[in-house]
Amino acid sequence: MFYQLYELNHAAMAPFRAAADIMRFAYANPLNPFSHTPFGRTMAASLEMFERTTRRYGKPEFGLKQTTIGDRTVSVREEVVWSRPFCDLLHFARSVPAARGNDPRILIVAPMSGHYATLLRGTVEALLPSADIYITDWIDARMVPMTEGTFDFDDYVDYVIEMLHFLGHDTHVIAVCQPSVPVLAAAAVMEEARDPLSPASMTLMGGPIDTRINPTAVNKLAQERSLQWFSDNVIMNVPWPQPGFMRPVYPGFLQLSGFMSMNLDRHLVAHKEFFMHLVKNDGEPEKHRDFYDEYLAVMDLTAEFYLQTVEEVFIKHSLPKGELMHRGKRVDPAAIRNVALLTVEGENDDISGVGQTKAAQTICVNIPEDMRMHYLQPDVGHYGVFNGSRFRREIAPRIIDFVRQHSRSAVKPPVPRVIKGGRAG
């Protein structure tokens, strides 16, 4: 009944949140003399803190309306081009000048691990000037009716393969964090089947390919607990009146509590500083609001997918051991021969330790040396692997260069040919 109690508590707090919001506007109104006093600002700050810490944060928007290509600002239109019960495929269609030619087509597979795909807004924004971007927009499991069936690890791999088929020849795929494992599995399945639509390149960023290497707190927790413990303690049924009523899920609010507990002191300091900036009327509170509006917006995961991921990735280490299965058949990373591989890690990553993603370079033994690359970004944690100033300055350009280098549609340099009696030309 824990999920039901959570929903009941949220509903019970609704009138108090509404009252706090009204009072905050009254105290912050410049026409109110108290708004210019420490007392008025303290009251407004306290009421905002109460409202923000008791609300449910809805799914954010990408809000990417334009990008800069060369020296021109062009409009960007967001559109759903492919849809299944548990995922939409979003395309950021740019108004590209006709003379520009074709930019590489990139499928970004966002994590299905609690946060919405909008967590990768900075990733998309950094790559948009140089590539035609598509991203997986996973659906909150509590919004999917039971009549739509289940969604497990096999389904995840199938979704990736279907999207690659939909996008067609010469598509590049980027997996951020958790999807590194199913994306690598999808590439292996396609290559073993000699699928001509297998991705041209595969970029794995901060992913748990082999969690036996440099284990983090997340990895150690999974090793210390049995799968039954996870099933008994974190799996709950979606309460009425949500569309996914009675669907077993790993609730978003439990995931969020886990995320925040890992760096609780940092979050407490951030909120204290936010409160003091509001009281003193200085600083940049919008940055705090924007970050936590994104960070606190979470979604439920289907129980079957979550438990399979815990078991196969964090407990059994099936992929690096060569024991991962898809639809009853062993996934063989050695089958990957024609997909270029780029792995990216952060030096201070406390979610996927250094070396866990690079392990893909070891298990994909048959990728030619000139089609593989690894990059370790100094001075960034997990979030900095796919977002922030260092990502924009150091990582994104390397991804674009790697993708262009291994594009199957790229114009190849002419092969020197020897003409009898003449020179190579």
Shape: globular
Largest sheet: 9 strands, mixed
Query: In CATH terms, what is the architecture of the largest domain?
Result: 3-Layer(aba) Sandwich
Q: Tell me roughly what share of residues is in helical segments.
A: 40-55%
Strand/helix succession: HHEEEEHEHEHEHHEEHHHEHHEEEHEH
InterPro entries: AB_hydrolase_fold, PHA/PHB_synthase, PHB_depo_C, PHB_depoly_PhaZ
Organism: Rhizobium beringeri
Domain PHB de-polymerase C-terminal: 206-406
Protein name: Polyhydroxyalkanoate depolymerase
Highlighted features:
single chain; about 425 residues; alpha/beta; 2 domains; 9-stranded mixed beta sheet; 3-stranded antiparallel beta sheet; 14 strands; globular; PHB_depo_C; Polyhydroxyalkanoate depolymerase; PHB_depoly_PhaZ; PHA/PHB_synthase
Model description:
This protein has about 425 residues and is of the alpha/beta class. The chain folds into two domains: about 1-55; about 65-405, Rossmann fold (3-Layer(aba) Sandwich), CATH 3.40.50. About 40% of the residues lie in helices and about 15% in strands. It contains 14 helices and 14 strands. The protein has helices at about 1-30, 40-55, 120-125, 155-165, 180-190, 215-225, 225-235, 250-260, 265-280, 285-295, 305-315, 320, 360-365, 390-405; strands spanning about 65-70, 70-85, 85-95, 105-110, 130-140, 170-175, 200-205, 235, 250, 300, 325, 330, 340-345, 370-375. The strands form three sheets. Strands 1-2-3-5-4-6-7-13-14 form a nine-stranded mixed sheet, sandwiched between helices. A three-stranded antiparallel sheet has the order 8-9-10. A two-stranded antiparallel sheet has the order 11-12. α3 links the parallel β4 and β5 (about 130-140). α2 packs antiparallel against α9 (about 265-280). The longest helix has 27 residues, at about 1-30. It is globular. The termini are far apart.
